[in-house]
Amino acid sequence: MKKVLSFGTCLALGLSVVGASSALAEEATFYFDNSTTNWDSVCVWAWSEQDGLWASGIGFDAWPGIELEKDAATGYYVYVCEDYVEDGRIMFNNHDNGEQTCDAVAQSAAAGKVCVPTVKNTADDEAADPLRKADQWYGEWQDVAAAEAPAEAPAAEEPAAEAPAAEEPAAEAPAAEAPAAEAPAADAGKTADATPIAAVAMLGLVSMAVVVATRKKIA
Questions:
Q1: Residue 210: Cβ-neighbour burial (10 angstroms; 0-12, 13-18, 19+)
Q2: Averaged over 30-56, what is the pLDDT?
């Protein structure tokens, strides 16, 4: 009889635990920023430490989980869980192609926020925190409004129109040279000099004529 009561008590306790976790279930949305990881395909995997049946009940029966679609409004990959429990763990992976977010990120999952991977864990990270396994992505959960959604590449700016080159002032025409003073003709000087000579010669001729005439009279 005691064994029966003991089994019944354990069953009741088990149901109460499941009931308690189910009571916390509610719809929750999670986002993933793929701008750093650049995965071709993004999948989500979920589990719960409190309720082992929770994850399988919402479709997580085999790795890599559920493939996600990109949300056009935010630019992030989005996962909407209709029955999320308080201690649910959310992990993202590149469709089982060798990369995933680490347990440290999954454990800090927050509904309504975006998972932003920042860096891959190193061996030192794993030694300091077993939840940060080496070569897995570490990051944080940020508010969607605060996180920078992947932006499209900015359109190439058209080159600014060049300002018209300033026109060079037209070269000024050279000033007309003043006509050079004409040199006095050489003949003018000669004429002026020849005038007294001619007068003297004429006087000489007249004197000679007078002398000749006088001699003739005497003779």
A1: exposed
A2: 95
The residue extents of the domains of the chain are: 23-143
Instruction: Identify whether the C-beta of residue 134 lies closer than 8 Å to the C-beta of residue 122.
Output: yes
pLDDT digits (tens, 9 = 90+) for 150-206: 554 455 566 566 656 666 655 565 555 555 555 444 444 444 444 555 554 566 665
Structure tokens at 26: 């509610």
pLDDT digits (tens, 9 = 90+) for 90-100: 999 999 999 99
Sign of the CA dihedral running 44, 49, 51, 56: positive
* Residues 145 and 62 sit within 8 Å (Cβ to Cβ): no
Predicted confidence at residue 134, as pLDDT, reads 98
* CATH 2.60.40 is right for the domain spanning 23-143: yes
